[in-house]
Amino acid sequence: MKIFIASDLHGEMGSHGYNVPEGLDFDVAVFAGDVHHAYRAVSWLTNQRALWGKEVMFVAGNHEYYGSVLEDAAALIRDKARGTNVNFLDADAVPVIGGVRFIGCTMWTDYRFDADSQAHGLHAGQFINDHMFIKTTPGAECPAPFTPKEAYRRHLAERRWLTDRLAEAHDGPTVCITHHGVHPGSLHQRYADDGAINASFISDLSDIIEEHQPELWVHGHVHNRHDYVVPGTPTRVVCNPLGYSHEDSGFIPDLVVELPDWTPRPRLR
Known about the structure:
CATH topology: Purple Acid Phosphatase, chain A, domain 2
Strand order of the largest sheet: 6-7-10-11-13-12
Oligomer: single chain
CATH superfamily: Metallo-dependent phosphatases
Structural class: alpha/beta
CATH architecture: 4-Layer Sandwich
Shape: globular
Order of helices and strands: EEHEEHEEEHHEEHEHHEEEE
Number of domains: 1
Largest sheet: 6 strands, mixed
Number of helices: 7
Strand content: 15-25%
Helix content: 10-25%
């Protein structure tokens, strides 16, 4: 299977004007978050001519939820995706396309990367835009701020869900899709000493990767391209973000990766 991969297109910034190149040879497209605001993300995807007739896997990033109540925005995305070729993966459905299983969610950070989670959470609450621009609790007269504590609660729930899905038997390749990073290999060396910031972008899910060894893990959020294999496993991690207009992220506009060939195991009768 050939998979087109992109993330962090930031259509809400209106500065890139990126469109998926037409004529690409791929079977499934994966968008690992931060495509556009919640009310525009699905329409942007369905308007891309290069994606017509293709299955699209999409997880929301943090920017999809900016200016919104998180639960309401997720419901809006789900409603807009219904009846289209866009599969909105939000720790619920697990599509299987051509024998390949796709497991996805935002995977909010746990703020435990590389040091003190309490200190990192405090820093994030003061300086990370997620906790200023996102609200939570749908239907409340005064929606509550999306705090680091709430992000951690959601991280734990998504982590349990993802681990449970990976533990389920599947006779074929598995592709995991998250917005936030999941392994230290996705940390750019220029940020190596900035633990508080790193903890807002990456959670270390090495234990899950090592135990379940999905064939491919796609993520976004960090605005630097990455492509590596997790040591001791066959799991390939790919991040292909466009990023902001002033950044040089290394984005490849026509990136397509191919899963290794696989043969279904014979079933015993």
